[in-house]
Amino acid sequence: xxxxxxxxxxxxxxxxxxxxxxxxxxxxxxxxxxxxxxxxxxxxxxxxxxxxxxxxxxxxxxxxxxxxxxxxxxxxxxxxxxxxxxxxxxxxxxxxxxxxxxxxxxxxxxxxxxxxxxxxxxxxxxxxxxxxxxxxxxxxxxxxxxxxxxxxxxxxxxxxxxxxxxx
Length: 167
Known about the structure:
By secondary structure, the chain is α+β, with helices and mostly antiparallel strands.
């Protein structure tokens, strides 16, 4: 089975939310018999179940594009997905041991191919030498600058005194 995202419209009424966010917040609602509805055992830690109205002005197809990174969604699938008004169930194929065989109240609206990471790139070997150390010139402190100034003043005074003796 290729990596896919199955988009189901649920005709069952309810205000149920079971998403990555609700799981992270520790909310664990009692789920309906999703396995019976989808026709396959579901790993509920990988699904998204929520009312489409939760998306506000965002379309469901845009949300799917951002959250699941599918290949470009065909226009016909986009129209069917955006027509869902009730509750939606998004199930990635890695949450199922087999292809779904949905029954009411779940109806399969779209099956989208998910992008796969390309791990065949040839990368150059990393340079294991440490980067060159930056040699910084020490900045004299205020006390050092004052002592240099007084030393210079003393030297000038000695030269002036020697010149006065010579003349």
